[in-house]
Specification:
The chain has 315 residues and is of the alpha+beta class. The protein is built from ten helices and eight strands. It has helices at 34-39, 50-53, 64-69, 81-86, 152-165, 169-182, 200-214, 221-228, 231-235, 292-297; strands at 2-5, 70-71, 94-102, 105-110, 126-127, 145-148, 241-247, 267-273. Helix 6 runs parallel beside helix 7.
């Protein structure tokens, strides 16, 4: 099921999703967090471990979905018309940083190869999924995008998740393998595509992690977090993070289409916080209240617990 955006019948403004160098009129929407960047597995299906591998090579040998969804410093994916026209990659690095925690984010001198003005991505990353690759700065209001409300992969993962909850372990694991196979993750000698989960609890967590990357930027994450009751994990962060990348002293600016594979060691990498305040999600948001207009229409309706009522939707 797809909703089609196509000017002039149905418009999709994408100005806030693209770097200002190739966009206009808005900024700061749907920036990938470092938590999402970290969640994408490696090409062999193993988990990415920044503590072991370090961030200088975070872009190497990742799952294909990583490159299809995440635009990063020096990414060779010219997913915007403006990039192709100007013969440039995206560069998010800073020439120098004087304060990592300024009122409006990082304070310093941003590179001019990709000129993001005074409003660069707070996380150091940009979203690629569902961006119209043929629009430029002059027509960001007229993006043409086919927006899938539900994909076949989601149908399969819904089936697999339910199978796990009723003890159908083999079915649940096979769905995960099928999803990873489609993403060109290596099967490995054991044919498990890097999946280590065996118990019901482990498989449930594996589904949570797989949905995070598979359906990123498709509007699924918030309701997934609610139904799994994972607010505690977000609150424990307590802020989402990004990656501040700085050019080492004495190193000249990157050429617009420089190869990051031979230049990654010219930068320093620092994990930073991105949110202006700490996350503080309340348990009452696991279940939304019944709108007052609905209650007024039917005297027999009871408001849910946590919102001034007595109705427990979990009973």
């Amino acid at each position: 099921m797809v909703r089609r955006y196509n000017y002039p019948q149905a418009t999709y403004f994408q100005g806030g999703l693209m770097p200002l160098n190739w966009s206009k009129d808005d900024v700061g929407y749907d920036r990938p967090s470092l938590e999402l960047v970290d969640a994408f597995p490696m090409k062999d299906g193993s988990s990415w471990n920044p503590g072991t591998d370090g961030y200088s090579k975070f872009f190497m040998n990742r799952d294909d979905r990583f490159y299809a969804n995440i635009a990063y410093n020096g990414s060779p994916n010219q997913y915007l018309k403006g990039m192709r026209d100007s013969k440039s990659y995206l560069w998010t690095y800073w020439n120098n940083i004087t304060d990592y925690n300024g009122v409006k984010g990082i304070i310093g001198k941003h590179n001019q190869v990709t000129d993001e003005g005074t409003l660069p991505s707070a996380s150091g990353f940009y979203r690629i999924k569902a961006i119209d690759k043929n629009i430029d700065k002059g027509n960001v209001y007229n993006a043409a995008v086919d927006w899938p409300e539900i994909r076949y992969t989601e149908v399969l993962m819904n089936l697999g998740e339910c199978a796990n909850e009723v003890g159908e372990t083999n079915t649940a694991l096979q769905v995960l393998k099928d999803v990873r196979n489609r993403a060109n993750i290596s099967a490995g000698t054991d044919g498990n595509f890097g999946i280590l989960a065996k118990t019901q609890t482990e498989i449930r967590i594996a589904y949570q992690k797989e949905r995070f990357v598979e359906f990123c930027f498709e509007g699924k994450r918030w309701n997934d977090i609610r139904r799994w009751k994972l607010f505690d994990q977000l609150n424990a962060l307590p802020q989402r993070h990004g990656l501040a990348i700085t050019l080492k002293p004495g190193v000249p600016d990157m050429a617009p289409m420089a190869d990051l594979n031979t230049n990654y060691d010219n930068f320093t990498y620092k994990v930073i916080t991105c949110d202006p305040i700490n996350l503080a999600l309340k348990d009452q948001y696991y279940i939304y209240p019944i709108p007052k207009a609905r209650l007024d229409r039917n005297a027999k309706l009871e408001q849910v617990k946590g919102w001034g009522g007595t109705f427990d939707p979990f009973l």
